[in-house]
């Protein structure tokens, strides 16, 4: 039985998680997305449990959040490329994802049925539905303007 090798060098890490070039089919998208989320959660837990100051942990969490959002954004871009779509939808996702924590802080004191709270919840629903759709919809068969079909390379 072969051992599962999780070692990544810097170049491979950049290509897999921080590149907007090319296409990405569903399985690697799902696996990398889950990997980013799990690693982020581990770092969040470590920072909040090991760092003595909540302010330092909050600062470290902001850095991890930005890295997480950028990594997921690049995965979304490449998945949209596989569907033959450009970056405008991914940019909308990026803007919503970056502003999401600020939106939730703004509406924390508002009634749940207020218009502002409903808009923020709608934006959250949009980002979640986009991710679910990207997990489920098969990419365009054959090459497109973003590259060759990743499933045909096998």
Textual characterization of the structure:
With 154 residues, the chain is mainly alpha-helical. It has helices at residues 10-17, 26-50, 54-82, 88-107, 115-136. The two termini are 22 Å apart. The relative contact order is 0.14.
Entry summary:
With 154 residues, the protein is an all-alpha fold. It has helices spanning 10-17, 26-50, 54-82, 88-107, 115-136. The protein contains five helices and no strands.
Q: Please state the structural category.
A: mainly alpha
Rg over CA atoms:
18 Å
How many helical stretches? 5
Share of residues in strands: under 5%
Question: Which features does this protein show?
Answer:
154 residues, mainly alpha, flat, 5 helices
SSE map:
Layout: H1 10-17, H2 26-50, H3 54-82, H4 88-107, H5 115-136
Helix pairs in contact: 2-3, 3-4, 4-5
């Amino acid at each position: 039985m072969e051992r599962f090798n999780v070692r990544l060098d810097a170049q491979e890490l950049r290509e897999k998680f921080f590149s907007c070039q090319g296409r990405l089919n569903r399985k690697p998208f799902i696996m990398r997305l889950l990997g980013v989320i799990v690693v982020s959660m581990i770092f969040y837990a470590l920072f909040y449990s090991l760092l003595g100051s909540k302010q330092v942990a909050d600062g470290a969490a902001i850095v991890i959040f930005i890295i997480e959002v950028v990594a997921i954004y690049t995965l979304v871009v490449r998945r949209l490329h596989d569907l033959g779509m450009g970056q405008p939808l991914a940019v909308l996702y990026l803007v919503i994802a970056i502003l999401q924590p600020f939106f939730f802080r703004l509406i924390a004191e508002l009634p749940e049925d207020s218009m502002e709270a409903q808009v923020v919840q709608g934006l959250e629903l949009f980002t979640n539905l986009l991710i679910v759709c990207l997990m489920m919809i098969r990419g365009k068969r054959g090459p497109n303007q973003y590259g060759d079909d990743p499933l045909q390379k096998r």
